[in-house]
Amino acid sequence: MLPVWMENTDSYVPPGGGGTFAVKTIRSISAAVGKLQFQQGRESKPFLPAAARLLLLLALILLLSLSRHLLVLLACTALAMMALAALPPDRILSVWKSALAAALLAFLVLLPAMLLRPAGRGNNLIIIWKIFISVQMVSIFNHTTQWNRITSALRRLHVPGVFIFTIDISLKYIVLLGRLINDLLTSYLLRAVGKNKQKYTSVGGVMGVVFLRGTEMNRQMYEAMVCRGFTDDYEGL
Amino acid sequence: MSCMELRNVSYTYPGEKMPVINNLTLQIEKGTCLAVRGDNGSGKTTLFRLLNGLAFPDTGRYMFEGTVITEKYLKNNRASKAFHKKIGYLFQNPDVMLFNGTVYDEIAFGPRQMGLPDEETDRRTRDCLQLFGIGHLAEKAPYHLSGGQKKRVALAAVMALNPDVLILDEPMAGLDAGSRAFLHDFLSQLKKAGKTLIMATHDEQLVRDLADQVLVMEMPNMEMSDTETPETV
Question: Any bridge partners for residue B26, and if so which?
């Protein structure tokens, strides 16, 4: 038999304010998970196989890092700009966002050196430029190559299987755990109909559940692999 | 006036071309029960997300108690909280609904949010613990419960808010016979008490006993059937 209060309608008027943190967090997690999923499934028409592009990328970054000639720096910048120009506007924006963030971080790290030793300012600016171009090139590669092609390219370059496996599984599980956090926060949002005085306890609870679920998924995946003949040996990967 | 009304609603997932919900018109009267049926991927959960204000139609409009529910409307905190208070949503997977340290806290979360006095919060929580037969689990961590127990706790946590409308996504999935019979009985009592029920279910008996109308979702078109003669479902 239902309790009396459940048979009646509440005359509840919610307070204003608060409650935006769950909405904001859900939006940012959804965007991040969406980006990761989208990134796994898209690819522009490649002008070179993924392994060749990966090798070219590594060679260019190495060249950029070691060279002290302005000409090399300009050539790499021109190459990066040409590759960037072939992308659609939203991806150009995304590439520039990550490259600018890296350059800004480098600028902040080098700022004390630039202030204390004005004579070396030119060299410091070149380092920031190099970082900007390197991150831009990595980001372009990431935006134009599907993840399964990257792992296949890594295998062709004889990168150890355990390394590829770890990256691959981590990426997949980030998406799964991201979805779990998203669902938990959505469920929180639907029931957070007032002012939550213990907001951080709830957030702690969400993080705790995600940690437990992550551990459980890890164990379950390992057991599933053992059942299919995995013997802690990544040779056949 | 309808409790909920969808008019020519279409919804397409971002990045997809085909709409998962295409030009759907639907009216749900207060105190009635709508059963939603359809294969996996036919858009049942998406429909529930629309009804809960978690997603918004690309075209058409959704009205709840005469108010058009839009993203802009729900950006107002007070309006959003009042809307969510009136609609309870039981997710298909109860795991994603349980984030508190104990079953007691999980159920008390809603009444505490509503700012009810401690005694009233305790009374509601204990009522729910007793009603759902989970009193012995009060101090246990929800995460470590069995699937059926988690579903009971999740439903108790939703019911502690005393919503006017209850949306259930596959409520019978993964339940044993005893829990199914309990849930069947509980939903019948809720309907008698005048609550509006919307549920996605494959349980024929539940549909026959409770549903006033049945929405059959099929891609790409949808059809609506009345269940005054439920044996035709």
Answer: B6
Looking at the fold, whether A96 and A168 belong to one and the same domain comes out as: no
User: Residues of A with CB below 8 A from B124's CB?
Assistant: 3, 5
Question: Is A194's Cβ below 8 Å from some Cβ in B?
Answer: yes
Same domain for A51 and A112, yes or no, is yes
Domains contained in chain B, number: 1
Structure tokens at B62: 């959704």
pTM: 0.77
The CA distance from B162 to the nearest CA of chain A, in Å, is 6
Let me know whether A185 and A127 are in one domain. no
Expressed as residue numbers, the domain containing A109 is 44-145
Contact B159 A34 (CB under 8 A): no
The edge-to-edge listing of strands for the beta sheet with B4-11 is B21-28, B4-11, B59-64, B67-68
Here the tokens at position B183 are 């849930």
CATH number of the domain to which B202 belongs: 3.40.50.300
pLDDT score at B230: 41
The pair of three-digit structure tokens given for residue B184, joined into one six-digit string: 């069947």
Alpha-carbon distances of A58 from A53, A64, A211, B7, B229, rounded to whole Å: 9, 10, 35, 55, 69
Q: Which residues of chain A have pLDDT under 70?
A: 17-22, 34-46, 196-197, 232-237
Mean pLDDT score of chain B: 89
- Here the ipTM equals 0.84
Q: How far apart are CA A80 and CA B107, in angstroms?
A: 56
Q: Could you tell me if A217 and A189 lie in one domain?
A: yes
Residue B104 lies in a domain: no
The closest CB to that of B96, out of A12, A20, A184, belongs to A184
Classify residue B205: in a domain, yes or no. yes
A49-75 core/surface letters (b: 16 or more CB in 10 A; e: else):
ebbebbeebeebbeebeeeeeeeebee
Residue B232's pLDDT band (cuts 50, 70, 90): very low
Residues A140 and A178 in one domain: no
Q: Structural domain tally of chain A?
A: 2
Cα–Cα distances in angstroms (integers) from residue A120 to residues A95, A125, A128, A133, A232, in the given order: 29, 9, 13, 20, 51
Please indicate, yes or no, whether residues A114 and A167 belong to a single structural domain of this protein: no
